[in-house]
Amino acid sequence: MGHLHYHVRDVGAAKKFWMALGATPTRLAATEVMKFPDVLVFLTEAESSGGTEGSVINHVAFRVRSLAKLKDGGMDVQLLAQFPGVGSVTSPEGERIELFDDSSENVKFTSDDGYSDAIADRHNRPVQVPIIAHHIHLFVPEGAEAEAKSWYARTFGGTPGTRWHYAAVDLPGINLNFSSSRAPVAPTRGRRLDHIGFEVKNLEPFCKKLAASGVKLEAPYTKHANGPATAMLTDPWGTSIELTEGLNGL
């Protein structure tokens, strides 16, 4: 997938939380990075205007082999009695991270008619590692779910489908889910989860393709010395997205 970039007041406490979930710590220059299969979690010391709830990204979710083993290991896992295999943990600053284990039916993804994607079929098989990223759940205005699904599938070449009963798009390493929100939601910029990131091969021509299709880049393609190439955009609903090439080496 790429990365999730959090702004936190206490980097040390956040680092401890993500490591307890199974992350391997590393760094990118001065930034603390928590490494999971398919996703990096960046931790920057900064104030935020609020958590994910109330923003266009309501929460993120991971799959684990066993919620019981996490509980036995000391994690405060809150289980959902009505949905076997589904629970959540809360970060030191109040971020809810949804978790699924292999007993859950809620993780499964069905591609839309006419689409076939062997990579997306990973959601329908047991996990092969202790923890792996599963989905990012976006809340968009009522009636906009289909439009958001179409935009992400078209813009990033994802596979459209359904995850449980949610409109969804699958990308390598992450599933994007779309729900409607009756209440207004805030853009992600400045929230605790400030932005998400997608790792892209051949990023420079991809950025040119985006521009030609009418997608505005807020920060153009830039190749940083001794670092990844990056670009930045915001989706039509307020999700800040950093595009990168070169983070796979971390």
Describe the structure.
With 250 residues, this protein is of the alpha+beta class. The chain has a single domain (2-249), classed as 2,3-Dihydroxybiphenyl 1,2-Dioxygenase, domain 1. Helices cover 16% and strands 41% of the residues. The protein contains 4 helices and 17 strands. It has helices spanning 11-21, 67-72, 145-156, 203-212; strands spanning 2-8, 24-28, 31-36, 39-45, 57-64, 78-79, 86-90, 96-100, 109-111, 131-141, 159-163, 166-171, 174-181, 193-199, 219-223, 229-234, 240-245. A 9-stranded mixed sheet has the order 6-7-8-5-10-13-12-11-9, covered by helices on one side. An 8-stranded mixed sheet has the order 2-3-4-1-14-17-16-15, with helices on one face. Strand 15 and strand 16 (229-234) form a beta hairpin. The radius of gyration is 17 Å and the shape is globular.
**CA radius of gyration:** 17 Å
The total domain count is 1
Report the CATH C-level class. Alpha Beta
Low-confidence stretches: none
Averaged pLDDT? 97
Strand content: 35-45%
| Main β sheet profile | 9 strands, mixed
Query: For the terminal residues, how far apart are their CA atoms?
Result: 13 Å
> What is the CATH T-level topology?
2,3-Dihydroxybiphenyl 1,2-Dioxygenase, domain 1
Spatial order of the strands forming the largest sheet: 6-7-8-5-10-13-12-11-9
Structural class: alpha+beta
CATH second-level architecture: Roll
Tally of extended strands?
17
**What does the overall shape look like?**
globular
> How do the SSEs run, as a string of H and E?
EHEEEEHEEEEEHEEEEHEEE
Proportion of residues in helical segments? 10-25%
- Continuous helix count: 4
CATH H-level name... which superfamily? 2,3-Dihydroxybiphenyl 1,2-Dioxygenase, domain 1
